[in-house]
Amino acid sequence: MGRKWNNIKEKKASRDANTSRIYAKFGVEIYVAAKKGEPDPEANRALKVVLERAKTYNVPKSIIDRALDKAKGSGEESYEELRYEGFGPNGSMIIVDALTNNVNRAVSTVRSAFTKNGGSLGVSGSVAYMFDETAVIGLEGKTSEEVLDILVEAGVDVRDLVDEDDSVIVYADPDQFHAVQEALKRAGVTDFTVAELTMLAQNYVTLPEDAQAQFEKLIDALEDLEDVQQVYHNVEFGE
After folding, report:
1. According to the model, what pLDDT value does residue 120 have?
2. Contact 159, 230 (CB under 8 A)
3. Which residues are within 8 A (CB) of 21 and not within 5 positions of it... i.e. 6 or more apart?
4. Alpha-carbon gap, residue 21 to 83, rounded angstroms
5. Which residues are 168's β-sheet partners?
6. Where, residue-wise, is CATH 1.10.10.200 in the chain?
7. What pLDDT score does 37 carry?
8. Is pLDDT above 80 for 14?
């Protein structure tokens, strides 16, 4: 299962190199989550998930506060949540999640990114059935045995738990996201290296070198789009 964490690390590394764009996307996501419920993360589980993930990307407090203040105040921007499914080189599979205030722009730019980079946009359901929504939580400073003991004692069920580099990575059902974090926080964990609700492929593929280069261009093009929040795929990047 380590390959799944490697793909998340690859995504985080890419995003760390484009902080201003990523911070802007988080601002939109926090605003939308806060507008859908209470602007208080303790009363709004969706907002709490976004804020926990924002911490792992070091999103500045000023951006978080600005988005929350906008949601509490007169902000009336309307965003739609959209999911696109498509294919990259060699039949690779891609899911694109978007938040947009202009649906026509979103679908046009996503389709263009696919077609210009060797991919194609598919129909709803053509790809998503090959992915599972998963909570992925990473931490340092404890062994996998210690983490397992903490979670068992707290009565938290997980799908898998592995050592990866200097981190322990916990994979769990989405509804266990907060339970895993709260159990670890009670045990003294204060920071997480990853805290994601993500889509993980059931099977991963490795592309030949030329196809991988084209695939990476496609992923970069999609992640650069204003309306795109998350991109998931089933390609295992080479070293």
Report:
1. 96
2. no
3. 224
4. 20
5. 139, 163
6. 2-72
7. 86
8. no
What is the average per-residue pLDDT within 155-166?
Answer: 90
Of the pLDDT bands very low, low, confident and very high (cuts 50, 70, 90), residue 76 is confident
Q: How far apart are the first and last CA of the chain?
A: 16
In this structure, the number of other CB atoms found within 10 A of the CB of residue 189 comes to: 18
- The residue whose two tokens read 């907060």 is 178
Task: Kindly report the backbone phi and psi dihedral angles of residue 160, in degrees, each rounded to the nearest multiple of 5, phi listed first.
Answer: -160, 160
Q: 143 and 168 in contact (C-beta within 8 Å)?
A: yes
Which CATH number applies to 132-201?
Answer: 3.30.70.980
Q: Is 95 helix (H, G, I), strand (E, B) or coil?
A: strand
Fold of the 2-72 domain: Arc Repressor Mutant, subunit A (1.10.10)
Higher pLDDT, 143 or 74: 143
Q: Say whether pLDDT at 5 is over 60.
A: no
CA separation for the pair 65, 125 (Å, rounded)? 36
3-state helix, strand, coil in the chain (%, to 5): 50, 25, 30
pLDDT at 9: 55
Report d(CA 133, CA 192) in Å as an integer: 19
Q: Under a CB-based contact definition with an 8 Å cutoff, are residues 89 and 116 in contact?
A: no
Confidence of residue 126 (pLDDT cuts 50, 70, 90): very high
For residue 190, count CB atoms less than 10 angstroms from its CB and return exposed for 0-12, middle for 13-18, buried for 19 or more: exposed
Fold of 80-129+203-233: Alpha-Beta Plaits (3.30.70)
